[in-house]
Design a protein that fits this description.
There is one protein chain. The protein has about 375 residues and is an alpha+beta fold. It is built from 11 helices and 12 strands. The protein has helices at about 15-20, 50-75, 115-135, 170, 185-195, 205-210, 230-235, 295-310, 315-320, 325-340, 350-365, and strands at about 5, 30-35, 40-45, 75-90, 95-100, 105-110, 140-155, 175-180, 240-250, 260-265, 275-285, 290-295. A hairpin with a 4-residue loop joins strand 2 (about 30-35) and strand 3. Helix 2 (about 50-75) runs antiparallel to helix 3 (about 115-135) and helix 9 (about 315-320) packs parallel to helix 11 (about 350-365). The chain is elongated, with a radius of gyration of 30 Å. About 25% of the residues are buried. Mean pLDDT is about 75; it is low at about 1-20, about 310-325 and about 345.
């Protein structure tokens, strides 16, 4: 139902004198509360448009742009109030009534269809105005005051926060993985883009959106499966992606140490390209998957290697036998060789020896 202006209306949450004096186009901030967790913006009818439909159409693109700006900072709820003044003629004098037509509060995320939501809101506002005007033909529209936009910071419940999963504690303690906190199903995209984000890397916000132009993600579906990553590599020449998983280390399952979880390869690219990424895939309940960015691979796996992953030199034997094994098994050995190659900087004599063997195999162009 439309409401007349009262002490609790949005009109009275702001200074009326300042509103009346504003003749600036665009959505202007007029008030905020709760340490800016709620902000009100007013778009005045500075052109004195007398038709509701024309007025809403004139500001539609401005409203969509403003909502995009707000939701890039944080998930929000928003609502609209269309303000107008009516004249009711009587026998003695005309009665002036101020009315507002409200839209319901809507949740808005970065991936929401803002255009579609705004269209639904405008349709609802127009329907409410028509219903109000049709109740009493004596009402005559005097002028349309403007459109009030209320933006409220929204913290969605955990069940609504997309694919985001927290890292296991012993992975966090290794300080080698960056886990962007997303509220959608696009964790693969954010795990890729974090490489180019310098500040506030743990939360997906405008700092991530500014980097989206770097890659073509159009070939992917969200959530992204491991099998789709080859499509991303093809769409972005010079880019390669390895995916690693986490599993329990049965030998150390009773030990309270960071080696209780082991990092292992899920997907290793055929050729490491100049723009290379190592991602860690975390699996939660109900087959929920979440990609994270490995910022320091050596640090991530150093503890499990030093605890016995490669104490001797198994790579040398693998290198000598590689050409004798079936082709479909060679990928397994290439995976192990890749892991050894990434450990060159670890201060462990046996790992340095493995790295030396890998380098020697490459120099002699041995097909592994």
């Amino acid at each position: 139902m439309p409401q007349s202006y009262s002490e609790n209306s949005v009109e009275n949450k702001i200074q009326k004198n300042s509103i009346q004096s504003m003749n600036i186009p665009g959505f202007i901030e007029v008030n905020s509360s709760l340490r800016r967790k709620t902000v009100w913006y007013l778009r005045k009818n500075v052109d004195n448009i007398t038709n509701y439909r024309d007025f809403l159409h004139s500001l539609e693109s401005e409203l969509i742009k403003k909502l995009h700006e707000c939701v890039r900072v944080h998930p929000i709820k928003y609502d609209l109030e269309l303000e107008a003044t009516y004249i009711i003629p009587t026998e003695f004098e005309n009665i002036i009534e101020n009315r507002t037509f409200n839209s319901p509060a809507r949740q808005l995320f970065v991936y929401s269809n803002v255009v579609g939501l705004v269209d639904c809101d405008f349709t609802l506002l127009l329907a409410k105005e028509e219903t109000y005007a049709g109740k009493d033909r004596r009402f005559a529209l005097s002028y349309i005051g403007g459109l009030m936009l209320g933006v409220h910071q929204y913290n969605p419940p955990i069940s609504c926060r997309g694919s985001y999963l927290t890292l296991p504690e012993n992975i966090i303690n290794r300080r080698a993985v960056i886990n962007p906190q997303n509220i959608d199903e696009q964790s693969f995209k954010w795990a890729i883009l974090v490489k180019h984000v310098s500040k506030y890397r743990n939360r997906v916000s405008i700092n991530y959106f500014n980097e989206e132009h770097r890659y073509d993600f159009s070939v992917l579906s969200f959530p992204t499966t491991v099998s789709e990553i080859k499509l991303f590599e093809r769409a972005n020449p010079g880019t390669s992606v390895n995916i690693y998983g986490v599993k329990s280390n049965e030998k150390n399952k009773n030990e309270k140490s960071s080696t209780q979880l082991m990092v292992y390869p899920l997907r290793v690219t055929e050729e490491e390209m100049p723009n290379h990424f190592d991602l860690l895939l975390i699996t939660g309940s109900e087959n929920k998957n979440h990609y994270t960015y490995i910022s320091n691979f050596s640090r991530l796996v150093s503890s499990q290697i030093n605890k016995g992953g490669f104490k001797s030199s198994p790579i040398e034997n693998l290198r000598n036998l590689a050409n004798e094994i079936p082709p479909d098994l060679r990928r397994t050995y290439k995976t192990i060789l890749y892991a050894a190659r990434t450990l060159i900087n670890i201060e462990n004599p046996s790992n340095k020896y493995l790295a030396k063997n890998v380098k020697e195999a490459e120099e002699h162009q041995i097909d592994l």
